[in-house]
Structures are given as C-alpha cells and as structure tokens.
Prior knowledge:
By secondary structure, the chain is mainly α. It has helices spanning 2-66, 69-80. The longest helix has 65 residues, at 2-66. The model has no long low-confidence stretch (mean pLDDT 87).
Amino acid sequence: MKLFRTFKSNFIFLALVVVLVFSGVTIYFNQSEMLRSLELEKIEKEKALEDATSEYNRALETEKTMNTADSKEKQIRERLNMIKRDEIQFIFSE
Length: 94
C-alpha cells in the first residue's frame, strides 16, 4: 500500500513537472513569435518615420524657396499674368 502511495505521488509529481515544462515551452515560443512580430512592426514604424521626416524636410525646403521675393514674383508673373508698372507685355499668337 505504501508503495502504491509513493508511486501515485511520484506519478502526480512527474505529471505536474511535464505540464509545467510543456507550459513553459509553449509560453517561450509564443513570446518568441510575439517578439519577432514586434521587431517587424518596429522596423516598419521606423521606415514610416524616416519617410515622413524626409517628406517634411522636403516640404520645408520647398517652403523656404517659395517664400523668397524672386519666387513670389515668378509665381505672380506666371500664374496671374501680371507685369510691373514700367513693363510692356507682348503677346504672340501662333
């Protein structure tokens, strides 16, 4: 009878160890997969941030060039067909 109790308690202990080891391995692989997923997401976010920063810098450069007096004058002449007071505009037809 005592041998049966020892066998039963050893079996329960062994089953508990197997369950805990299996659970630990499962958790480890799930965490590894989640970590890989997060690393890929981080890379994507860094790329998006880099692209947005680059676009922002280009917009700043464009704004700087468009805010100069020469650029404003060019836009007024081209878009609005305006001329200065002492200029004469010639229109050529084809």
